[in-house]
Amino acid sequence: MNQHTFKRFEDELNLLKSKTVSMGGLVEKAVRRSMKALMNYDQKRATKVIERDRAINALEVEIDEMTRSLLALRQPAASDLRLVIATIKIVTDLERCGDLAEGIAEYALKVHEHPHAHMDSLEVLSDRVLQQVKSALDAFTYDDVNAALQTIENDKRINKQYKAIERENLTYMLEDPRYISSGMMVAAISKNLERIGDHAVNISEMVIYKVKGHDVRHVDHATAERLVSGELDAE
Amino acid sequence: MKTKKNKLTVRNLKLWYGESEALHGIDLDIVSGKVTSLIGPSGCGKSTFLRCFNRMNDRIPNCRVEGEVLLEGHDIYAPDVDVVQLRSHVGMVFQKPNPFPKSIYENIAYAPRIHGMVDDGDDMDELVETALKRASIWDEVKDKLQQPGTALSGGQQQRLCIARTIAVQPDVILMDEPCSALDPIATAKIEELMDELKEDYTIVIVTHNMQQAARASDYTAYFYLGDLIEYGETQKVFTTPRDQRTEDYITGRFG
To answer: What is the pTM of this model?
Structure first.
């Protein structure tokens, strides 16, 4: 693509994108570290994650301000407009992911009260979710529609695994009522992870909107693929 | 499915100024009862194209046209076409407001009189009032109809010119950058007027102001170097253009 004739506009768009990417980087880190804190009963690390959520929130506010001024002052069109719109939505998803990671970190602060909690499957789930967040952010960084489509498709596996954890967790609680409070913690954490996965899907959908101009929310995967390939017209 | 009716149909239209080909075979349909904007950088052929619709290019020496321009199915370049008659069907509003150096009343009455549409008197008074009302300028001029049209402000003059155009009941109104000499308030009034007028008339507008094309038109055609690059619903063209050249132009990447 050609450069903007208005150099400063070009710079602003690039800055908007790079800020969003770095906010994504912070979120990815927060999720990874909150899980590490949880698995290692590491209260210090957990506290850091909670503190650093402020930086994520601050970036959200800053990026929102940038999008507002771009809309008001530059009246972006076409792909520039789609970048701005996608960013507004993506930033909200990222901020929510930050909050969910913070939630996990808060459980990490008191996980020592649940020494017998079964958390192995949480670790497996969080690896997958982190992979999803990473590939959604990569798709955004490189305008990679196929990666975005793949991320959306992969969410099905996460949902399946979340259900499996739910069932397993329920079995433990039925077996031994003393496990219920640990079981509720595991349920809450797995729910947070599953939701982070959903936000990765939202981000991927916005990547497709940004690159192709198609709104693939609330359509099935086959339709989304056909829209993206141009085989199907948006109408 | 809503059915679209085409007011104008253009097929393989080529135009030469002397030896140089300014339009390289344009195919385009202008939808009836809608506003279509023609955008593109200077020299891309959009004004030339607009002027084909009422044969204004006939006045330019060495200008030659090939291909078809159909107004409701009738070839406007057919030998038996009366150009004066054609221009009463396809009116034009120019970049610079150009009222006749006559009274406001006469500006409107002149064309209906020479076309023999109505006689002077009550009928003419009524026609003048209707045209001025339709162009949203009646309230501002009703007490000074005998004053010269040139005494009005730029925006009022432009609306007077629109009133003059619609006084002869055209099918199509062509506008060649009608707001480029106007302030934002006068511009907004013209755009609002276009929105009202499109119920009865088909409007084609050339504009360099892309925000105006986005705001005021239903369809947008992007011209570049004498070719029609892209045509589509304005909403589509400004959010997801198909062609990279359109994308570059409307986002401000002037290579």
So the answer is: 0.87
